[in-house]
Amino acid sequence: MANSNSADVVVVGSGVAGGLVAHQMALAGASVILLEAGPRIPRWQIVENFRNSPAKSDFVTPYPSTPYAPHPEYTPANNYLIQKGDYPYNSQYLRLVGGTTWHWAAAAWRLLPSDFQLHKLYGVGRDWPYPYETLKPWYTAAEVQLGVSGPDTSVDLGSPRSKPYPMSQLPLSYMDQRFSDVLNAQGFKVVPEPVARNSRPYDARPTCCGNNNCMPICPIGAMYNGITHAEKAEQAGAKLIPQAVVYRVEADNTGRITAVHYKDPNGNSTRVTGKLFVLAANGIETPKLMLMSTSDKFPRGIGNSSDQVGRNLMDHPGTGVTFLANEPLWPGRGPMEMTSVVNFRDGAFRADYAAKKLHLSNGVPTMSVTAALLKKGLTGAELDRQIRDRAARTLNINSFHEHLAEPQNRVVPSADHKDALGIPQPEIYYSIGDYVKKSAIKTHELYARIASLFGGAEVSFDDTFAPNNHIMGTTIMGGDPADSVVDADCRTHDHSNLFIASSGVMPTAASVNCTLTIAALSLKLADKLKHEI
Amino acid sequence: MTKNISRVQPANSLVQHARLRRFGVAKLAVAFALFALYVAWHEAHGPGAPRTDESLITQARADDISQLAQTTPTPAAAAGASDLVKRGEYLTRAGDCAACHTVDKARPFAGGLLINTPFGTIVTPNITPDPGTGIGRWSDADFLRAMHEGIGKGGERLYPAFPYAEYTKVTDRDVLAIRAYLNTLTPIHFTPPPNTLKFPFNQRWLMVFWNMFNFDEGRFVPDSKQSAEWNRGAYLVEGLAHCAECHTPRNFTQGLKASSRFSGALQAGWHAYNITSDKNSGVGNWSDNELVSYLSTGVASGRANAAGPMANVVTNSTQYLTREDLDSIVTYLRAVPPISGGETRPRDQWGNPANDDVTALRGMTINAVNGAQLFIANCASCHSWTGQGVGASAPGAYPSLIHNSTVGASDANNLTKVILHGVNRTTKQADVLMPAFGAQLSDEQVAAITNYVTKQFGNPQSTITVDQVAKLRKWPR
């Protein structure tokens, strides 16, 4: 059992990555301390926060940022992320026990085998230090841990599987079925999305009952949230300390990590020692912490002999389209997202421009439809009639474009913006290059074609790249210590007892949500740690 | 009441009591009877075997078992099993043997259920055919004696956690069919931990006294004045299914109280409801089909949903009974004389939909113990803010809280237990799970929700205090 200040394994961050590692290590009998910067908020309070929030479409509002562990807010903006690049990296993430998967759409994709060899196959970006096959069993394990429901084996998602999904897929909504039928008849490949959402009782959590607010909060826990493993870790004996903002990683002169230091909300500092350290504080806070942790021996920060910490920042820049179909499709029945268009995830074109995934939103459009009609001055019965008509026919499609790892896109601790505890805010330099822009032009054409298949009226393209909060690349994995931060085991090249569990290690962004890959990497990492304890 | 049924009652318990006093062991006997009550309670519902997370991940990586959390494979329903064995399997389910003897689904019938009592711990035995640790060396005669007389292979008295007081009614033929089925199970070499009972409760011979009060050995004798269906129902209800163990209150010797048979009892926090034919207090206003539906699916739509120990009974036992047997059980229950508990209307005839709470709560400060707010935040996403549920009568629907036999009951115990521990019920129709809220909510919060729900959707006189919640939280699921 860990005491407050020392443990076999010290994990920083209690989201899906840190929770999984802490849980596995506690099960293996190690003493574990799990440090979380943010507070602990019960699900029911988040639900009530959401219902009380006037900004329903801002998924952060039910999770108020705290002065001691702020996270980005946009309604109104708190300017936590200091934007210095030519494109704002307006990412969302949460700092509380359980982490950012409190609000997500639960998409649980595996990468494609080609995603591991982007440079080898297409001459762009980087390669992973191992092939898909190495991560494959950990994907399976991650799907079991998170509880993933997905299509049966007759649907090839491009990522070889050794066994079916733990749960069969939820029935498609009428809209998703119709969308699939129409597009698939025209050569598109629309598939049911694998999701960490229960289609039957699983792991003591209930079946999805279609509240349709996966984002910002699943009110019943049918969708996986990182809180599941934070709590499992505690039940297995890990000591979880909320409101513990780690601000320094301490190394001795041999390079071994000896401690991390955290501040409580009053600024009082505590030093936590351990044998093994795992940073799991997401792709922005983790590199920020490493870069802040400078010393005489490590003047560029912890793990940064390659100067790659904080660099290679990636996301999935997204564009969208909204139109009125010429038939009622009734979006909003079931979870918020159920199908994806996957035939642009790979191909020779990746030498030239970005892979992408398109996905149909199944969110209820009533609020945006109503706001637009009110703006037009409609009232009374006509307003009601048009809300019904338009809410039933509004289709919204979005996309993820693959971003390449480019060192100039980076996060650093701000020199002049500090939070209430005096800890530097993240400062971000971000740009979106031609690789993505070229692809987005073609995405626009695809949108137009899809809209025409539904006799689309009032087609409205949103070509501004939207953030998708998939923070990758900033503690990049690779075989060469000169140009990467961690090795194939997610161990930092510079410190034999410091590991990173995060999408920050991903050398390629691919075109799908990164959470399942985070989970697989975390379980693989935990397995490694079990042999070192 | 048949002659047969009255035979199991301590017909002249006062006389027996006097005799005991003469022996100077009355206190001991009463203590024993109390102890027996505990044990009998635990017998009635085995805890669900918790899945371990380690096994989740091991399974995932082993590339062999594709589904986790599957229901236990039926051990001997394999094709080609003899009719005798199939009948034995059916009867084993009717007797709900798995409730106590299957703790770990990976180890069916190998025993090991820890039954904690104030007198120590009893552990259920391995009844697989393993010769060393199970009952592989038992003869048929040994098995018959255990079932009919409560005596083990070595002549030792069995504790009445094992309901031989009911099993004694089961015919030799049926007992031997059960034995034949158990013989086909995979032998599992597993020795459950020993009982750790304190003196004098570790003295098995003392069961002689318990038997004097509560046990009348003998097979079921049909009543020729009653229909074949009634007799079949009586045979099942009073025998293998041992319904009375939970649904009948105990007399002062802790035997089943003859005058109150099936009128409901409170045990380990759960109310095993009145199942007499009383229209307000019992199930007299249920249709035959509703009773059959409840036993076969756990749901009588618009009335009741099985939770707690009864959900386990449905999951492990009654859902497998044939329509004929269920009809027989219903016929017999219908004939049970009505006993009123004083209720003024049926449990499932209370409550109205909420109509104004949602808007009233918007913008309100989030208060840790506001029943209406906690209901909206924790419960309404499935049961609807109106309390009317979601999914109507579809299998697996989230039930209405209005006209709900748990919410309308005259005590709030079962509602509180459901909030604390959730619901698990797996049937051929639906895999039903309500999450447990015990870990998320304080006793104050659980009491606030319970009292809001009974007031708004159920019997408003039914309330619970924070202290009562704390006690219910400590009982086993």
Helix and strand topology:
The complex is a heterodimer of chains A (533) and B (477).
Chain A: E1 6-12, H1 16-27, E2 32-35, H2 43-52, E3 82-83, H3 118-122, H4 132-146, E4 149-150, E5 167-168, H5 174-184, E6 190-192, H6 227-235, E7 239-241, E8 245-251, E9 257-263, E10 269-279, H7 282-292, E11 318-324, E12 337-341, E13 356-361, H8 366-375, H9 380-393, E14 394-401, E15 410-418, E16 424-429, H10 434-453, E17 457-466, E18 498-500, H11 515-530
Parallel strand pairs in A: 1-2, 1-10, 2-7, 3-16, 4-5, 10-18
Antiparallel strand pairs in A: 6-12, 8-9, 9-10, 11-14, 11-17, 12-13, 13-14, 15-16
Chain B: H1 3-7, H2 13-23, H3 26-44, H4 53-62, H5 83-94, H6 98-101, E1 114-117, E2 120-123, H7 140-149, H8 164-167, H9 172-184, E3 196-197, H10 207-214, H11 228-240, H12 244-247, E4 265-267, E5 270-272, H13 288-297, E6 299-300, E7 304-305, H14 308-316, H15 323-335, H16 357-361, H17 371-378, H18 380-383, H19 413-421, E8 423-426, E9 431-434, H20 443-457, H21 466-474
Antiparallel strand pairs in B: 1-2, 2-3, 4-5, 6-7, 8-9
Helix pairs in contact in B: 5-9, 7-9, 11-15, 13-15, 17-20, 20-21
What is the number of helices of chain B? 21
**Which consecutive residue ranges of chain A, at least 5 long each, have pLDDT under 50?**
none
Strand order of the largest sheet of chain B: 1-2-3
What does the main sheet of chain A amount to? 7 strands, mixed
The biggest sheet of chain B, with number of strands, parallel, antiparallel or mixed sense and barrel status, is: 3 strands, antiparallel
Number of beta strands of chain B: 9
User: What form of chain B results from the Cα inertia axes?
Assistant: globular
Largest interface in this structure = A-B, 39 and 40 residues
Oligomeric state of the chains? heterodimer
Beginning-to-end CA distance, first to last residue of chain A: 14 Å
Radius of gyration of chain B, taken over Cα atoms and rounded to an integer in Å:
23 Å
User: How many structural units, i.e. domains of chain B?
Assistant: 3
The assigned structural class of chain B equals mainly alpha
Ranges of chain B with pLDDT <50 over ≥5 residues?
1-26, 40-76
Output the radius of gyration of chain A: 22 Å
- Helix-residue proportion of chain B: 40-55%
Average pLDDT reading of chain A: 97
The total beta strand count of chain A reads 18
Helix/sheet category of chain A: alpha/beta
Strand content of chain A: 15-25%
